[in-house]
Each structure stands twice: as C-alpha cells, then as structure tokens.
Amino acid sequence: MSRVGAHRSGVPGARNPRADETAPGDLVVEARDLALRFGGVTSLDGVSLRQRRGEILAVIGPNGAGKTSLFNCLTGAYRPQQGSVTFWPQADRPTELVGRRPHAITRLGVARTFQNIRLFPALSALENVQIGTEVRQRYGPVGAILGLPHARRAERDGVRHALSLLDLVGLSHRTHELAASLPYGEQRRLEIARALGTEPSLLLLDEPAAGTNPAEKQDLAGLITRIAGTGVSVLLIEHDMRLVMSVATAVVVLNFGRVIAHGTPGEVQRDPAVIEAYLGVTDAEDTGGAAGGADVPAGRGAAARKDVR
C-alpha cells in the first residue's frame, strides 16, 4: 500500500497525490468538496478525502475543526449543502450516500460509533450486539411472532454472530451482564461490537479512546488493528495522537472546516501547517521540537503540550 507525502489543500495548482494514485477499484469511500453550513457558521468548507479499502484512515484536528460534522455527512445524519459522497459496498458498485437516510446507509455497509456512548443500558452485552445483527436479518414481524423456521434459524445465526463479535472485542466473559454495569472502557468496546454486528465494509469510530485509561487505549489500538485485519476499513476520529500514530495507515487533518494536510502519520506529524493549527506557532523551537517528530497533541497552547506527555 503506497504512501505519499503530506499535502496542504488550497494551494493553487497543487496535486492530490493520494487521489491521483488510487484506482477506483481500491476505494471504499470518497468525499468530494463537502460544504456544510448552519446559518452563518461554516462547519465544512470544501472537504475532500479518499479512503482505500482495508485502510485505517485517521481524521484529526483541533476541537471545532469539523470532524464529527464530516462523520455526520458520511452517515446521513446531516445533508451537506454541497458535494458528494461515493461509497463502494463492493469494488464495482459505486453508490451515492448524500440524500440517503441513516438506516439505508447502514444497510449499505457503513456503521459508526459516537463520542458519547449510546448503548441500551438495561440490556445485556449480548442483546446490545444482537440489535446490530438484526440489520442483516431478513424476516418480518409475522415470521418472528409465528416462530417460522427461517426466523428461528436467522435468530440462532444472529446469536452466534453476536457471540463471535463479543469474543473479537474481548468481552466474551461479559455476555450476559447488563451494559450499564460494564466499566467505561468495556462499554466503548461493546459499542464497537454492536456496530460490527451490522456487517459493515466501512466502520467510523468517533473518538473511541475518549475517557479511557492508558491500558484501555493500548487494548483499543490492538482491537482497531484486528478489525482492519478482517477486511473492514476503519475511519477514525481521535485526539490521542499516540493511538493515531500507532494504528493509522494515513491521516487527514482538518482545521476550521478545511483539509490542511494529509499523508502518512509521520509526515503529517511534521507538517508546519499541522503544528501551527495545534500549537498556534510555526517555529520548531517554540514547539519544543514538535517539528522534529514529537507527538502533535490534541489541543492548543499549554494544554496541548500537556497532552503530549
């Protein structure tokens, strides 16, 4: 999988090397020139990105950069005023996502998690994941009420699939425990398992490490890598730069609703535009050596430097 240097958008005549080098059959999703406005506030301003199939692509940027707005446009929660989003459920089946409702996009193969955990707290871990698997079940209420053979068979298959996903995320020992009783980090992983229950080709993770401790972050990094190893493409929003640098194949950086850089994690980490966006300075000496390869933190100024430690 080829990698390219970081590139600042908005430069007249600048080429997008990742776009030029990516064949259509390699893509899982492509957003083009997305613009999203709320009254006089612009959340996204001509945002474009391409993700290869099987790639872990991280979207980073300071708070308010437009990262979650981008996710909401990709999943149908928001409809951008401008631009398009093409998704390939299969290599030869491009599908436009803009204008589709969230449940339809989920059925096509795009799943997501949220910044704030959205589980069913009074249901067990297994039941939470089963809710995700039901997206792919093809029996109606009549079949379920009458207990028809195909409905019973689909239900058994759903349970088996849910159990396998709990094992994947390391929660097989929590199968019958209520979601509300799980530690915070395990609730995060349970939400990922539920999203995987929809059998996505593309999984969007919105700050999955938020609120977790270092050990949980390490486990999460391993989980994201395992998920990508199953063939699911992962699009990741995350503020923890150590996690991003350890798992991402490529990184896109947003600031004030625009793409300011993209490339490999190391290249983006050293890009002056990225350092300026996070720290508010361009002089490598003022960043304490950030341009030389230290982690770019998730914030600005002194608070940003604290995050690096």
Characterise this structure:
This protein is an alpha/beta fold and 309 residues long. It has helices at residues 17-21, 67-74, 102-108, 125-133, 141-146, 149-168, 184-196, 214-229, 241-247, 265-269, 272-279, 301-308, and strands spanning 27-38, 41-52, 56-60, 82-87, 95-96, 110-112, 202-206, 233-237, 250-255, 258-263. It has a domain at 119-199. It has 12 helices and 10 strands. The strands form 2 sheets. A 6-stranded mixed sheet has the order 6-7-8-3-9-10, with helices on both faces. Strands 2-1-4-5 form a 4-stranded antiparallel sheet, covered by helices on one side. A hairpin with a 2-residue loop joins strand 1 and strand 2. It is globular. Residues 1-20, 284-295 and 297-309 have low confidence and may be disordered.
Query: Helix proportion of residues, in percent?
Result: 25-40%
Tell how many strands the DSSP assignment holds: 10
* CA gyration radius, whole angstroms: 20 Å
Structural class comes to: alpha/beta
Within the largest sheet, what's the order of strands?
Answer: 6-7-8-3-9-10
Distance between the termini: 31 Å
Low-confidence stretches: 1-20, 284-295, 297-309
Q: What string, H for helix and E for strand, traces the elements in order? A: HEEEHEEHEHHHHEHEHEEHHH
- Overall mean pLDDT: 82
Main sheet properties: 6 strands, mixed
Specify the overall morphology.
Answer: globular
The count of helical stretches stands at: 12
Beta content: 15-25%
